[in-house]
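On clarity, I found the account of how folds are encoded harder to follow than it need be. Since the whole study asks how a given chain folds, the encoding of that fold should be made plain. For the editor and my fellow referees, an illustration may be useful. An entry of this sort, consisting of the sequence and the corresponding backbone structure tokens, reads as follows:

:::
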Amino acid sequence: MTIAPELPKALDMIQVLVHNNVICSMGHSTANIDQAEAGVNAGATFITHLFNAMQPFHHRDPGIVGILSSTKIKRKCYYGIIADGLHTHPAALRIAHRTNAQCAVLVTDAMAAMGLGDGSHCIGSQSVTVTGKKAVISRTDTLAGSVVTMNSCVENFMRNSGCTLVEAVNCATKHPAELLKCSDLYGTLDFGTAADFVIIDSDVNVLATFIGGDCVYKSTNFVGFLD
């Protein structure tokens, strides 16, 4: 659940959520750095789509963004980042990655129009126009989620941050599993974990998808041991 830590009684709410095993995130917020640190120390362990829908970074008060390098928080705080090439500038991706690579979690922010192509679509009752990889509220320039896929986010993050493919994949698998406290079953291919995985090429195109060890998708471009 995402909550703005500066709101009245927000810190109490964070503690209640954590006590009831709800992962608490900070976002859609105008919090300053002190309020953000208080949110983490109350139990928040995630930042919702870093840089978006929050106070912009300022050198005197970095706001929620400052959590990435804070020395005043008691626990690890992961952060989501939308690497679709639109929501977050490549320079911002690099700043985040080089500041705190171990807590990066790739998110698509994708809405229901993903994969449906250009045209008019809806998020609930709201009309959205999709052109290429960009989705905006119709007749405005306001971004309305995204239509990017996770493998595209991995490729964008790797290319723009300068990290390795392994590091980028970890941001889409290992790190979110750690955040959600299910890394004993998901996020890696360690012995005893779920056999859920994808086979990709060097450009991060998905060649095959397995769930529970069964192949549920195979690209026509894939020639391998499944044939």
